[in-house]
Amino acid sequence: MMRNWGSDFFGQLNGLPKEPLNIIASVLEAMRTQRTFRLARRELIADLRGLIMSPGGEVKILEAGCGTGASLPDIAELIPSASLYGVDYTRHFIELAEERARSLGFSRATYVQGDIRSLDVWGGAFDAAICDKLLLHVGPPEVVAGAMARAVKSGGLVGAIEWYPNFLLSTSKPSYLASFNEIFRKAVYNINAASNLERILRSAGLSIVGSKTYVAEAKSLDEEPFWRSFIVNQAPLFIHAGLISEAEAREIIADIEEINERGEFHGSFIVRSSIGMKKPI
Ligand SMILES: C[S@@+](CC[C@H](N)C(=O)[O-])C[C@H]1O[C@@H](n2cnc3c(N)ncnc32)[C@H](O)[C@@H]1O
To answer: What is the pLDDT of residue 280?
Structure first.
């Protein structure tokens, strides 16, 4: 049954030294603060708050692929009565998530290292389960969604956020943009996760409550940390992983930088979210 399980580099980080892991953590941090990712996350949490049956009492939330605890500040602010149980496969990220909870003084966050697909010990204990930028990297996504659906109560909610890593970027040659987007097509496990959120949640027996689609955009590489961090600073990781040659990466980045300096930069991509409900018995 586990034979078709798979993942991309995000499921294989445990063997890496701390230095590259901290670079990846800093990119995740730049993604956390990117305003559209942030808006999608905050709206998902607020929508879940509105749908949860007993918002007055303790609200138990599971986060699959919680990474470094990016969601915690928003959950703590928007659902102050939440208890958060985060699961992530990467040990170092769990340590960073615990550090974040300590520095926020939030004591009802528990972070555990494990594979969400096989951790099945909480049977129906949660009011909601969420994942943010996980379905892109781990599969089959239906197995991930199934684990999340089993974790929530009858009438409980499963919320997923995903993005489509296929950028619109101003470049002087079409081939530059095609080569840049090819990096993600080759690198990620499930490139079409964002366009299939409803199908993935339904496959886990959930009924769709609602979905949202957002466009993230910027007029400068330096408008917010995400753009330079994701497009320029990650290049050595892409080159090291054999996703693009150094010469080609340099040429593309030089072109984008030049366009940016002229004030002609445009970058955009799509982010989606969807909420499913476990049928009340
Ligand atoms: C792109 S990161 C997103 C992290 C976080 N949700 C965020 O928004 O910053 C994907 C995360 O999935 C985790 N991951 C990969 N495979 C996993 C699995 N099988 N079970 C749980 N987490 C997994 C990785 O360790 C990584 O932290």
So the answer is: 84
Q: Is the CB of 106 under 6 A from ligand 1?
A: no
Cα of 138 vs centre of ligand 1, distance in Å, is: 8
For the Cβ of 34 lying below 6 angstroms from any atom of ligand 1, the answer is no
Nearest CA to ligand 1 atom 27: 67
pLDDT > 70? residue 2:
no
Say if residues 104 and 131 touch (Cβ distance below 8 Å). no
Q: What is the mean pLDDT of residues 222-245?
A: 95
Structure tokens at 50: 């509105």
Higher pLDDT, residue 2 or 129 = 129
Ligand 1 site, residue 89, Cβ cutoff 6 A: yes
Residue 269 has pLDDT above 70, yes or no: yes
pLDDT band per the 50, 70, 90 thresholds, residue 15: very high
Q: For residue 246, how many other CB atoms are within 10 A of its CB?
A: 12
User: How far apart are alpha carbons 28 and 144 in whole angstroms?
Assistant: 21
From residue 145, give the alpha-carbon distance in Å to each of 41, 83, 126, 148, 194: 18, 21, 14, 5, 13
Domains of the chain: 2-278 (3.40.50.150)
For the stretch 92-127, pLDDT in tens is 999 999 999 999 999 999 999 999 999 876 778 999
Q: Largest Cα–Cα distance of the chain, in whole Å?
A: 60
- Detail the DSSP E strand segments found in the chain: 6-7, 59-64, 82-88, 109-113, 126-132, 138-139, 152-169, 206-218, 267-278
CA of 244 to the centre of ligand 1 (A): 24
Among 138, 144, 164, 184, name the best residue to mutate to test ligand 1's pocket (greatest count of ligand atoms within 8 A of Cβ): 138
